[in-house]
Amino acid sequence: MGAVTTFPQGRAWTVADLEQFPENDGNRYELIDGVLVVSPSPAVRHQIVSAQLHLLLAANCPVDLRVLAAPTDVVLADDTVVVPDLIVARRSDFTSKILPVAPLLAVEILSPSNRLFELNIKHDRYRRAGVRSYWIVDPDRPSLTAWALNKDNYRQIAEVSGEQSFTAADPYEVTITPNALLD
């Protein structure tokens, strides 16, 4: 018989509770302010966009930074663990298992099941945690929307679709063309 997972009752979920879940079971487990969010594995189109964007970001990444694709747990607080589709962070900020601080860039790729969650709840949680740059890629449009942290609020700095391009300056210079992410 395998290990028994106990669920918190009458209190918010914590990082310690999340650590009891099995790895590689096909689900993505996240905590947002103590609330457990479970997402299924992404579809093929989502994975194609993620892989193409990962290659593009990695090819331009400075040596002191690292680009990682999901699943990588990003611990923003004791009650908040997110799993962005892609992150860019300082190499020195990673532990052997997690990123215990806000990344410089968090990228989320929309799926039909996560659209409102990514555009609202995670957007706000990344802002509160101090994630400097937040991008959302919509493979169905295809499009990219980018925000930059300005003091305590996000300011939209780009919204491009199809063959339009966006050249990011932060965390480093890279040019993204949404249609090219589907090749």
Automatic annotation (TrEMBL):
Keywords for this protein: Endonuclease, Hydrolase, Nuclease
Any one Gene Ontology molecular-function term assigned to this protein's record: endonuclease activity
InterPro entries linked: Nuclease_put_TT1808, Restrct_endonuc-II-like, Uma2
The keyword Nuclease belongs to this UniProt entry's keyword annotation: yes
Keyword presence, Hydrolase: yes
All copies of domain Putative restriction endonuclease, residue ranges: 16-166
A Pfam family: Uma2
Entry-linked PANTHER family: SLL0198 PROTEIN-RELATED, SLL1222 PROTEIN
Protein name: Uma2 family endonuclease
Organism field: Microlunatus elymi
